[in-house]
Design goal:
mainly alpha, single chain, 2 helices
């Protein structure tokens, strides 16, 4: 395989019906929604006890710290976890909407 050739992948047709796929995606969506809520709650709890010092207003001017993400690595990890959970949740929400559209439930 070279840099310019794609690996040959054969997609197998899904054995599940659209309704079964929808049920599976909705279950995954509920799980990802709970994961996003948990990640958001952890970030919120951390923010309550550790104020964000990345930027500050002083006399009407906004100042931002240089290398601010290195100042609080725990906050950085929590923000990344929240962003990943949000991305997963949104992708499942889009897949759910596409399935609902193909089933004719929504336009």
């Amino acid at each position: 395989m070279s840099w310019f050739n794609k690996a040959a992948t054969i997609e197998e047709p899904s054995a599940l019906t659209l309704a079964e796929q929808l049920a599976e995606i909705e279950e995954q969506y509920r799980t990802s929604e709970r994961a996003f809520d948990r990640a958001h709650r952890m970030l919120f709890d951390h923010a309550k006890t550790h104020p964000d010092g990345r930027s500050v207003f002083l006399n009407g001017n906004l100042f931002a710290r240089i290398a601010a993400m290195k100042a609080d690595p725990e906050r950085a990890k929590l923000e990344v976890a929240q962003a990943h959970a949000l991305t997963r949740r949104n992708s499942l929400l889009a897949a759910r909407a596409a399935l609902l559209k193909s089933l004719g439930v929504i336009r």
